[in-house]
Design a protein that fits this description.
By secondary structure, the chain is of the alpha+beta class. Helices cover 21% and strands 32% of the residues. Helix 2 packs across helix 4.
Length: 436
């Protein structure tokens, strides 16, 4: 990743910050605070099972921790401006305690008072966020002076707010010799794409299907440029003209250069044993920097996208109530056609990482398993839309149990990388996620 990790995308900050709704669910992007007890009673059984299995949390605890994460994210937005010398990031610890990291600085006393007034626990750390960001810039400058054989080893960088240091990603973890000012940084393995499933049988059929709704996490097929793929639908929404769309992954579009034209890739519903009718076309696709696609629904399929649900394919859904920003330690769950619901926590935010030949920026990572076919699926925290599944370090394994064992033996753990939904919305004025 020679010469310009920081320059290609200004992303190096620390942590910054139910049943299906009515068919005509409103579209909005503003986060809302869920009523925890009410929402817990409405979570689908498949999601509750995943929360208890992967997080060892009750539904109420899951929602409470998710809500705390968003309160921390809002505090971070203010603290970053008001206390630049002391602020060092925010996160939830393993017990769900909201933490604000503060370094010594002229504004530390005021920052401590503000954090404690907000009900957060303060942790003293050695380096402020601004100091860590300066190290990222120094890293970028150092890479500019290195030969390609060295510079290309660095595939990504992020600020580790919990350990108050940097994390670098590399294809050859043991082959990277860092300069003295980065001796304390951790070096971990780079991710690979959470690939869609290749398919050679995506031939559209003419027979109409019952007008069943399509929800986040459901399977779909894409066909373009002679290539067929199987992916998972993302969040339903509306475009700037109010038309129904689905927001999924950019690498699920097999003919990305043609998005928005008459040659755009087509999207089809998938049914047991085959491919259903066409449901839309790829109106816009982004792969480098932000990984997302916007599928515009066909007129005869528009009603199928007019809901705000996320689910395991074919099961009861959770209703999306707003959008959220990723915060380290916040609980998250993803849905996809291959592995259904799996849950974990946010492990890093505001990071840039190379995935194959592309760069994923403004991204966050999570401790969740995702396999081929889960690409494009939804990631939620509580009942809030958080991100789109993009890349995984275990996508090549057949099942998550195998991925868990192999990564444990290697001293690692499954990671799923994602594009924040709020980054997608900000890049597309008028685009909104359907909420109830």
């Amino acid at each position: 990743m020679r010469s310009s990790i920081a320059r290609r995308a200004a992303v190096f900050g620390s942590a910054a910050l139910l049943l299906l709704g009515p068919v005509a669910a409103s579209a909005q992007a503003d986060p809302v605070e869920p009523g925890v007890s009410d929402q817990a009673a409405k979570l689908p059984a498949e999601l509750i099972d995943a929360i208890q299995r992967d997080l060892s949390l009750s539904p109420d605890q899951y929602l409470e921790h998710s809500e705390l994460g968003q309160k921390l994210a809002e505090f971070a937005k203010i603290a970053r401006t008001q206390f630049p010398d002391a602020f060092a990031g925010t996160w939830l610890d393993n017990a769900g305690t909201p933490i604000v990291g503060l370094a010594d600085g002229a504004d530390k006393d005021a920052a401590v008072a503000a954090a404690e007034k907000a009900g957060f626990q303060v942790k003293d750390v050695a380096q402020s966020e601004s100091s860590l960001q300066a190290q990222v810039k120094s890293l970028d400058g150092w890479l500019d002076t290195q030969p390609p054989a060295v510079a290309d080893l660095v595939r990504g960088v992020a600020i580790d707010v919990v350990n108050n240091d940097l994390v670098l990603r590399a294809d050859n973890v043991g082959g990277l010799q860092l300069p003295d000012f980065l001796k304390g940084a951790r070096v971990v393995q780079s991710p690979a794409t959470a690939a869609p499933l290749p398919s050679t049988d995506l031939t559209p059929i003419a027979e109409p299907l019952p007008a069943d709704a399509l929800l986040g996490g459901d399977a779909y097929g894409s066909l373009g440029g002679g290539v067929g793929l199987r992916c998972s639908l993302g969040f339903n929404g509306t475009d700037s003209s109010g038309g129904p769309v689905n927001i999924t992954a950019g690498h699920c579009d097999p003919n990305r250069d043609a998005a928005g034209t008459s040659e755009a890739s087509e999207a089809f519903s998938l049914v047991p044993g085959g491919t259903g009718p066409r449901i839309g076309t790829f109106a816009k696709t982004s792969l480098d920097i932000h990984d997302y696609s916007i599928i515009r629904a066909d007129d005869n399929a528009a009603h199928r996208f007019e809901n705000n649900g996320v689910r395991v394919p074919g099961a009861a859904p959770v209703a999306i109530t707003g959008t959220a920003d990723p915060i380290v330690g916040a609980p998250v769950c993803k849905s996809g056609l291959t592995t259904g619901f799996t849950c974990g926590v946010v492990t890093s935010v505001a990071q840039t990482v190379s995935v194959g030949e592309r760069t994923l920026a403004d991204s966050f990572s999570t401790s969740m398993c995702a396999l081929q076919g889960d690409s494009g699926g939804t990631i939620v925290t509580g009942t809030l839309a958080l991100g789109i599944s993009s890349a995984s370090n275990v996508g090549q394994y057949p099942i998550c149990q195998v991925a868990d064992v192999v990564t444990f033996v290697l001293g690692e753990s499954p990671e799923l990388f994602a594009t924040p939904i709020n980054e997608v919305l900000a890049e597309n004025p008028g685009l909104r996620v359907r909420t109830s």
